[in-house]
Structure formats: structure tokens, C-alpha cells
Amino acid sequence: FMSSYQSGIGYPARETWFDSLRSVLTLVAQFAALLAGFQAFGVIVGFGIAAVVTGVFVWLSVRPSPKIPTKRTVDRTFEYARYSVPSSFLNRFYQSADPLLIRSFAGASAVGYYTLASQLGQPGALFASAINSVLSVKSSGVDSVGGDVRRDLVNSATYSGVISVPILFGAFAIADSVMQSGLFGSTFANAPGAVLIGIALMQVLNAYQKPFDSAIAGVDRPDIIFRVSLLVTIIYVPAAVGFGHLYGLLGVIAGTVIAETVRLVAYQYMAVRLFDGAVFPKPVGHQLLAAGVMFGVVEGVSQAMNLDQIIPLALIINTGAVVYFLSLLLISQH
After folding, report:
1. Would you call 307 helix, strand, or coil by DSSP?
2. pLDDT tens digits, one per residue of 163-189
3. Where do the DSSP E strands lie in the chain?
């Protein structure tokens, strides 16, 4: 709560750094607790220790003085929370429903495939989140003085997908090899590469909708976010259940992709109404083109290599990253 407070008063970078500190302390504390013989309970102990230690540092950096809120503060908070709280519940349900549906339609092993693919696609999501946590604060400040939020929205949309886009195109080329590599153990020897492609596509859509979510929240329109979330949930449930019943794991993922596409289209429509036009910056096209070049290189090289081994697989992944960023450097001035 205090970490979010820091972001709200104009220090979003501190929130990110303190969250990073908590992650590092969690890993160290959990490892120490496991060595001390706490076994599985050590994971909980480590997380608790890290949360308390980080909380002390956050409090020292903020030192908030408790105050009784005025009626105006209560009224404004209620006005915002009556939409933002239901939106949070809808998003929590939406994010946790996939594994439950997958287990129902495809079994526990399919949940493992989904979890692995989600972790592999996580870097793109983390990068987008880091950008857009700043946008929410900045757009709120700009809007409060009557400024134009569109410029900041366009800037954030420009870079939100810079990591998730090449992950998607890389998945198109070598998804099977990555999912079935020995790096993750024999449990995933039959993991379908299409799962990684679907998750990577979800991450791209999610990356590009995050700027709209942050900007709309920043201009005090949580009602719009709630209505979009409700629409997406209404579409997601029958789509994921229907396709999941027919196609199992891939069907549930397809339902989520459909829902995320609807969310992005809805936010673009709202951008026309709120921010004077849809948002598709030219550098996004450059990123797609650079990722296409990377796909061609990776696809060609992969045909001449045995990707069953970890070292060749790591080599081709690094080659793809170098090709993508070099291509982007040549194509785009951004």
C-alpha cells in the first residue's frame, strides 16, 4: 500500500525499485529458510520476512503521517473505488480462470504447459508493466492541469511491445524446440509449441492495451475500465468454456486471445472519444518489421541446426535477439 502511495505522489520508479528489492530479498530468504530445514513452509517464511523488511524501508522513505480524511476525500475516493474495486475483482477472476478451465478440460499436465509458456512470455509483460506504471501517474498529473494526455499515451504505446513482439515471432519459429527442450525436464517432452505461440500473442495484446488502461485511469475514468472489463469477461467466459470443451488447452487460450482482442479494440474506440483518435504509432510497425526479419533468420538457421541440445537452442535465441535489435536500429529512428 505504501509502495503504491509513492507512485501516486509522483515517484513510480521508487515503487518499481522497492518491488525489485522485495523480489531479491524473497529469493534470498526462501533459500536460507529451505537450507535451515523449513522445507515447503520455508517458501512462506521467506516471503514473509522479505515483505516485512521491505515494508520497513518503504515506510522510512515515505514516513506518512496519519490523518483523518475530509468528507471531500472520502467522497472522491468512493467515487473512484465504486468502479475500480469491481474492475479489480473482474480482472482477478479473469486472470485466474485460465488454469482452472484448463485443468477441467485438459488435466493437470496441460496446466503445467500453460504455466511454463506463461513464464517464458513474462519478460515482455514485465517490460510493458514497468512503462505503464509511470504513465498512470503522469497522465493523472497532466490531466489535472488541463494538459493533453495523448502524447504520453502514444509514447507508452510506442515501446510497450518492444520485447513481447520478438518473443511472439520467435515462438512462431522455434516454439516446439523451446517448450520440449531438456532444460525444463522430461515432464514437458510432449508440450505443444502452439501453447507458447498463444501465450505470446496474449502478451502482445496485453502489452498494447496496458497504455490505454493506465491513461484512462489517469484521467479519472475508472467507469470506462470497469465497463470494458465487464464486456471482456462476458465474452471470455463462453468463448473459453466453449472452445475449451472442444479443443482443451488450446481452446481456452483461444478464448483468452479473443477476449484480449476485444479489450484492445474497445480501448482504441475509447481513445477516439477521449484522446482525439486511435493510437497506432509508426514505430510499432517498425518493431513488427524487425521481428519479421528476425523470424526469417531464426527459421532459416533452425533448419540447419539440431535444437534438441541446450547450447544450439540458446545460440539461436541469442542470434534472434541480436538480429531483431540490429534490424530495429536500422529501420527505426526510435
Report:
1. coil
2. 999 999 999 988 888 888 767 777 777
3. none
Percent of the residues in the chain that have a pLDDT greater than 70, as a whole number: 99
Query: Which one-letter amino acid corresponds to residue 120?
Result: L
- Please spell the DSSP secondary structure of 142-198, one letter per residue: HHHTT---HHHHHHHHHHHTTTHHHHHHHHHHHHHHHHTSGGG-GGGTT--HHHHHH
Spatial distance between the Cα atoms of 94 and 169, rounded to a whole number of angstroms:
26
Q: What is the DSSP string of 206-222?
A: HHHHHHHHHHHHHTT-H
- The sign of the torsion formed by the CA atoms of 236, 237, 238, 240 equals positive
Residue located via cell numbers 524501508: 57
Q: Are 206 and 128 in contact (CB under 8 A)?
A: yes
pLDDT in tens, 237-260: 999 999 999 999 999 999 999 999
Amino acid identity at 143? D
Helix 122-144 vs helix 193-218: angle between axes, to the nearest 10 degrees? Answer: 10
Question: Which of 42-56, 128-142, 195-209 is predicted least confidently?
Answer: 128-142
